[in-house]
Specification:
Blueprint lengths: L18 H5 L16 H4 L3 H4 L17 H14 L2 H13 L1 H7 L10 H21 L6 H12 L1 H10 L9 H12 L2 H16 L4 E2 L13 H9 L6 E3 L3 E2 L12 H8 L6 H6 L2 E5 L8 E4 L4 E5 L2 E3 L3 H12 L9 H12 L3 H9 L3 E3 L4 H10 L12 H15 L1 H13 L3 H25 L3
Parallel strand pairs: 4-6, 7-8
Antiparallel strand pairs: 1-2, 2-3, 5-6
Length: about 450
């Protein structure tokens, strides 16, 4: 981490502040918490997943020579977004909470960054984040936003920039983003709508929108946690242009025997194709990663899985979200790690991905299904630390194992899967049965002539 060049504060300037902006309150604050760095054990041989390459946000990676290009662009964006009055107000508000920012970054000392340097860093970084948020939400002027980035950085650097955007150590306090939105937009409803659109597009894709921010009691720590909360929101997930889609589910828990509990905790699990052979059909559930359900019927079962779009940044996002879930002071149920662990068990090869893709569960911008399968395999969930964390998934696994262990439920499914998987095999089976009947009749009438 490089030390920034010390600069003296600007001379006093009289600033006229709107009373509405001055008196506005930001989001409900959360308890003070540290943005912990990724432990060395997790990042071993995986620095490319946790260390930014072209964009630095916050002090953890600040000052690297590889960030010079984006640092110059930050100054230009700052001058574009804020006038001198708003800059002064934002700077003063940050200085009022500078100790909170130092705590957020693990008690970073004044020897590394004095108050003024740290405040300036936060102003530049917050403006850059807001610029990216607006770029992804203001579709009428989207080309202008993208043109500036691509013209200044090049398409290759921009692609890596959005990848760095999803890294845990590359986050700024969420309250800082909300403060800037609050000051710049000066309209609570419009600011919330902007954030909802950004989170919806990042999580569900264009065309689906959150009706409101998905957190209730306290705001997220940073944007990674904001997207995590969005992905795990199990009440009102999205709305689109024509209808409101509400997804609610219940965890189907039942008392399990010791054997079934051991089976559910075991890493051994059937793949998508194996489960299909057992008569289990796959259905899309919702966009909530916790919405994994299984229903067992007489001769078949239905496994409902969340909808997910796999992109080049999915591996980085999931790896850093899992690192956040396992950070100290973080109170989570490891739901994202549990989802990935479950999908890793289901996906063994490209045929499994193909089945999920055809059922409308997985979508992808990657080259082929092999790349999707490889992506899931390479995400480390650190499952050796303990069993599958989310109780809901343990129960789902147990119910699937019980279904597959029932001969009465799977015999007919295996028969259909083996002999009726195509019209030709079905015709061959019926022809064989017909010939067998003719042979039986011929033998009968030979032994018992009329």
């Amino acid at each position: 981490m490089g030390k920034v060049e010390e600069a003296s504060p600007p001379p006093h300037v009289a600033i006229e502040i709107s009373s509405d902006v001055e008196s506005r309150s930001i989001s409900t604050p959360r308890r003070r918490q540290i943005l912990h760095r990724v432990p060395p054990q997790l990042r071993e041989n995986k620095k490319h997943l946790y260390d930014p390459t072209v964009l630095s946000l916050g002090p953890y990676h600040h000052g690297g020579s590889q960030f010079r290009q984006t640092e110059k662009l930050k100054e230009e964006i700052l001058n574009t977004l804020l006038d001198s009055n708003t800059k002064g107000l934002f700077h003063r508000k940050i200085l009022e909470r500078i100790d909170e920012i130092r705590y957020f970054y693990g008690g970073i000392s004044t020897d590394e960054f004095d108050d003024y340097a740290l405040a300036q860093m936060m102003i530049h970084d917050a403006c850059f984040v807001l610029y990216c948020i607006e770029m992804g939400t203001k579709y009428d002027s989207n080309k202008n936003y993208q043109h500036r980035l691509i013209r200044r950085l090049g398409l290759y650097v921009v692609a890596f920039m959005f990848r760095d955007f999803r890294m845990l150590e590359n986050q700024i306090p969420f309250w800082l983003i909300m403060l800037l939105i609050d000051i710049k937009i000066n309209d609570k409803d419009e600011g919330e709508a902007l954030l909802c659109t950004f989170l919806s597009d990042m999580t569900f894709g264009v065309g689906n929108k959150l009706p409101r921010v998905p957190w209730k009691d306290e705001e997220p720590l940073h944007l990674i946690e904001a997207q995590r909360i969005t992905l795990l929101n199990d009440e009102e997930i999205v709305t689109n242009s024509t209808e409101r889609r509400t997804f609610k589910f219940k965890s189907m828990q039942k008392k399990s025997s010791p054997i079934s509990r051991f089976e559910s905790d075991s890493n051994a699990f059937r793949s998508v194709i194996d489960l299909k052979a057992k008569g289990i059909h796959f259905r899309p559930s919702s966009y909530c990663l916790k919405d994994i359900r299984f229903n067992s019927y007489s001769f078949y079962g239905e496994l409902y899985l969340p909808i997910w779009f796999v992109s080049n940044n999915s591996k980085v996002f999931f790896s850093n979200t899992i690192a956040f879930e396992m950070s100290p002071e973080t109170d989570t149920d490891f739901d994202v790690a549990s989802y990935i662990n479950f999908m890793k068990a289901l996906i063994e090869n490209s045929e499994d991905v193909k089945e999920l893709r055809e059922k409308g569960i997985l979508f992808s911008s990657l080259v082929n299904d092999e790349e999707v399968a490889k992506m899931f395999k390479e995400i480390d969930t650190h499952s050796h630390i303990g069993p599958d964390y989310a109780r809901n998934l343990q129960d789902v696994k147990m119910r699937i194992n019980e279904h597959c262990s029932s001969k009465a439920k799977t015999w007919m499914a295996e028969l259909i899967h083996t002999y009726f998987r195509s019209p030709w095999t079905a015709i061959a089976l019926l022809a064989a049965i017909f010939l067998l009947c003719l042979t039986f009749l011929q033998t009968f009438y030979t032994m018992n002539p009329l």
